[in-house]
Design goal:
448 residues, mainly alpha, Preprotein translocase SecY subunit, 2 domains, 3-stranded antiparallel beta sheet, 18 helices, 5 strands, 5% strand
Length: 448
């Protein structure tokens, strides 16, 4: 495996792609580090710390995680790549229910280019709305106790500048992601998010060191806690890799066809159905939706609503229960909107393929739907466990959230998924040039 890394630099095309990707990733980190003018950094830090202790702190931490820490600095890339991700998800869901978009999706490359164009327009709209809301929030932090103004010169001038700057930063990150996908290595948009999450790793390591550093001669955690954390981290990563790679292989047989003197078909293959078909989407949906009731109820000055809002606060038993149920629901919802067994069965029938023991057509569609429903349950339960781990560690065990976030949730799922995808692409280049991949000894294969 270690020999695969130097072998990657021996292939000119792959070396060029890797260096191109690293260069754009470096620029993305600059976009996340350059602050927007007109904001007091000290007052902004106080504001972020106070918001993290309120009902919206979990959502703020999630958004700051996806932006790679740019939000807490109010940098040019404060919105990150999330508006583009949100626009892509909205268009994907609308494709399943809007006939016009569904026809575009079936038109091939031309239709996909049109949907991509709509996604970019929707991204700009989301950037303007979110940027304006963020600028207004900084000008009027509400009831939070801030010693000085966060925005030095509030008004429409600051709002317009902030909206234009953040929108430009998000569109620039979107363009970088597309360029990495086309001319670099890996999925560009996912890679931008992953690098932003990994950029918070040094802070997590420092927080971990502080956990075991004695204060007044007494450390908060002992060496046994450290061993437990390392074992938990290893087991969680191993589980995420296993379930991310897990798939149910449906055997498919193609009938023989005689065209002239040649015989076509007759081969046996399989159709892979992923256990975790929905990926990280159910967790993102559940977190985004649960943020709104808590925030709205906490703003109502009525005792009953405030108690309900406190019961739904991040990390409570009621929050974790509803959170788990919503992840289960959205796992099946995503499969229902994105997996079309009727279309798959029709395509198999058109090409002369069939599942052994199952009649073509509707019986095949019912078989695929039943199989997908069963394996989705396993993937949904796994997602639920992984999503709840950071909340339990932060609220019950007193572990800092920046440390607990790397033990599960969206961050770990995104990192593992993107790393596996990137390694597969690099390995395909290595195997094409007769080099062994990451899972075999790194020696040059015979070209015979």
């Amino acid at each position: 495996m270690l020999s695969a890394f130097p072998n990657s630099l021996k292939i000119p095309e792959l070396r060029q792609r890797i260096f191109f990707t690293l260069g754009l990733v470096f620029i993305c980190r600059l976009v996340a580090a350059i602050p927007i003018p007109g904001v007091d950094a000290i007052a902004l830090k106080q504001l972020i710390e106070q918001i993290q202790n309120t009902a919206g702190g979990s959502f703020l931490g999630l958004y700051n995680l996806f932006s790679g820490g740019a939000l807490q600095r109010f940098a040019v890339g404060s919105l990150g790549i999330m508006p583009y991700i949100s626009a892509s998800i909205i268009l994907q869901l609308m494709t399943a229910v809007v006939p016009a978009l569904e026809r575009l999706a079936r038109e091939g490359e031309t239709g996909r280019e049109k949907i991509t164009e709509y996604t970019r327009y929707l991204t700009i709209i989301l950037c303007v709305v979110q940027g304006f809301g963020m600028a207004v929030m900084l000008e009027n932090p509400g009831q939070l106790d801030i010693n000085q103004r966060v925005v030095l010169f509030p008004g429409w001038g600051f709002r317009i500048m902030a909206v234009l700057t953040m929108t430009t930063g998000s569109m620039l990150l979107m363009w970088f992601g597309e360029q990495i996908t086309e001319r670099g290595i890996g999925n560009g948009v996912s890679l931008v998010i992953t690098v932003g999450i990994i950029s918070l790793l040094p802070g997590a390591v420092q927080a971990t060191v502080n956990m075991f550093t004695p204060v007044d001669g007494i450390a908060q955690f002992s060496i046994f806690h450290l061993v437990g954390l390392l074992v938990t981290l290893f087991l969680v990563i191993a589980g995420v890799v296993a379930v991310t790679q897990a798939q149910r292989k449906i055997p498919v047989q193609y009938a023989k066809r005689v065209v002239g003197r040649k015989v076509y078909g007759g081969q046996s293959t399989y159709m892979p159905l992923r256990v975790n078909y929905s990926g990280v989407m159910p967790i993102i949906f559940a977190q985004a939706i649960l943020m709104f009731p808590t925030k709205l109820l906490s703003m109502v000055d009525i005792g009953f609503f405030k108690r309900v809002g406190a019961a739904l606060a991040y990390g409570t038993d009621l929050y974790n229960l509803i959170y788990a149920l919503m992840i289960l629901f959205f796992s099946y919802f995503w499969v229902a909107t994105q997996f079309n067994p009727i279309q798959i069965a029709d395509d198999l029938k058109k090409h002369g393929g069939y599942v052994p023991g199952i009649r073509p057509g509707r019986p095949t569609a019912e078989y695929l739907d039943k199989t997908m429903t069963r394996i989705t349950l396993a993937g949904a339960v796994f997602l639920t466990i992984i999503a709840v781990i950071p909340s339990v560690m932060a609220q019950r065990l007193g572990i800092p959230w920046i440390v607990a976030s790397f033990f599960g949730g969206t961050s770990l799922l995104i990192i593992v998924g993107v790393m596996l995808d990137t390694m597969r692409q690099i390995e395909s280049h290595l195997l094409t040039r007769h080099y062994d991949g990451f899972l075999k000894k790194g020696k040059l294969r015979s070209r015979r």
